[in-house]
Amino acid sequence: MNDGMQRPVQGLFVLLVFSCALTAALIANQVTSAFVLPGIRDTWAAASVPSNVPPSTALDGTRLAQLTGLSSAPHVEVAPAPEQDLRRSTLAIRLLGTLVAQDPRWSMASIHELPAGSAHSLMVSDLIQGARVFAIERERILLLVDGRLEYVDGFGSVPPVAVNAHPGAAQPGGSGLGRGIRETGPDTYAVPREDVTEALTHLPELSMQARVVPAFKDGRPVGFKLFSIREESFYSRMGLRNGDVLQRINGLDLDSPDKALEAFTKLRDARRIELQIERGGAPVRKVFDVQ
């Protein structure tokens, strides 16, 4: 082997020997620490502290406060202020029912307003007798009146709304909404006026018969999707099925909360109700004659 190749090989050999020696030294050090040093540490731990060492003194809180500029007063836990009790509103309105959606903008409330006796629907931020709707809950609605929150529920002093119920309609606490609906042809139905009134005045019961959530396509709202429809419910009697997407009511697109509220409100006085539905990707049209 020539001198030009021999020098690098010798250098590599020396480096290899040095690495092996270093590794052996590290292993020996670890073994020594594991078996020898514990005894030394135990001896140190068992040694008594010299008596001439003065005991450590506690920190002077006042002196520390002067040096740091912090208060020396002990920390006191402050209990959170109790939630202010809401009071029942004195406005002449009574809550008939609510439909609460996951998105609060789509929640609706049906109220009866006095003294005119008119019933209509509200959504969040709507105005009613000078008050603004702050929130819609299952059992009540919250109103912002002169900067304070008040609530309206269905158990106030306002007398309940009288409804001309027929034998097939649902009674309070009953479960017969839509019993008067009958099919007159393919996707055509006859609906007694009392059934429409009963359904709109028993929204809590109606909301328990199916789940209704906003439907979106390409990130845009296109209506409401129905699922978990109960048998013999108002929805099933209208011929609706799980997975149906309600897109229009009487020609009004349900692509915004305002349009949904407008369509919902007009149902009370409508003599003909036309629903445009998407079922399995195909359009379905249902017509209801209110009698």
Automatic annotation (TrEMBL):
PROSITE patterns associated with the record: PROKAR_LIPOPROTEIN
NCBIfam families linked: GspC_delta (NF041515)
Domain of life: Bacteria
Descriptive protein name: General secretion pathway protein GspC
Cross-referenced Gene3D superfamilies: 2.30.30.830, 2.30.42.10
